[in-house]
Amino acid sequence: YESKKIKSNAKLFVNSMEESYLMNIIIEQELKKAVDNHELFMVYQPQIDASGYIHGIEALVRWNNAILGSVPPDKFIPVAETSGQMLKIGHFIIDYTLREIKEVQKILNITFQTSINISVRQFMEVGFLTHFLNAIESAELYQVSITIEITENLLIEDIQYILPLLEEIRGYGIQISMDDFGTGYSSLSMLRRLPIDELKIDKSFVDTIVEEIAAQKMVQNIIAIGKNLNMHILAEGVETKEQSALLKAFGCDRFQGYYFSKPLLKDDLISFFQNHEKGQLIS
Ligand code: C2E
Ligand code: MG
Ligand code: MG
Ligand code: MG
């Protein structure tokens, strides 16, 4: 009986391994045509400040493929990274986002902060900053209205390269946000040396903050560390009024999550701004 059980477990393991291995190969192949076939597009999730006004948006990529259907970025960005496709996709994300955001700002006659996720490979690519600056200029946006979101994973790379590049980016007025803070490779001594404007508290802390004292303490400590380093604190994945109220009481500056809005297509973002321009989203 035991050996039969081990055998069937092994088979299950092989099956799921093959499935994800094959799936990644299909993703890799399909991804090669995705940009040229116009299968990728962007959605924008509003970020709200502590007085309830819209601070800005985070741009999030979406992929609809004929065979695979809608593939979440968590699944295909890592494949793009390892299969050498991130540069092309990264350029698409930057150009498309800045062009659409310029349209939104022109139509509404306002400016707001635009956050773009930059993957590790994208950041490490020679010429990343040059392309980014050119794209901002082509879109006729202000450099200070742009934020890049990096993750703690970036810190595993050569810090002698990363640190001066981050300083240079900051020197252009572009803001730097540390995404998913508290989930990755973090060192407080490193955090102190980085030119970071904003810490994004990961959704996993927010998820349990109402029920768990431990999560509350963790979040309070993250906020204290960030504030001491003169950083803004954004809570991500806020889904309820209770979470929002608690995070605000703890001193969070900015909030993002389904409680305020899901990520929106450009036209829906315009409507969101029009409906909320004068109204407050939290009290
Ligand atoms: P992230 O940058 O931490 O983005 C936040 C994720 O949480 C997004 O998922 C967003 O849709 C989701 N989210 C926001 N509020 C809520 C909420 O209240 N509840 C729940 N359940 N989820 C919420 P998404 O769009 O699937 O993106 C997942 C990850 O994929 C992102 O995490 C980011 O790491 C990556 N990603 C997405 N777009 C891009 C992109 O344009 N470039 C790069 N390099 N990575 C991207
Ligand atoms: Mg992000
Ligand atoms: Mg995040
Ligand atoms: Mg995340």
From TrEMBL:
Superkingdom as given in the UniProt entry: Bacteria
Organism of this sequence: Arcobacter venerupis
Residues of the full protein shown: 482 to 764 of 764
Protein name: RNase II stability modulator (GGDEF/EAL domains)
Domain EAL: 24-277
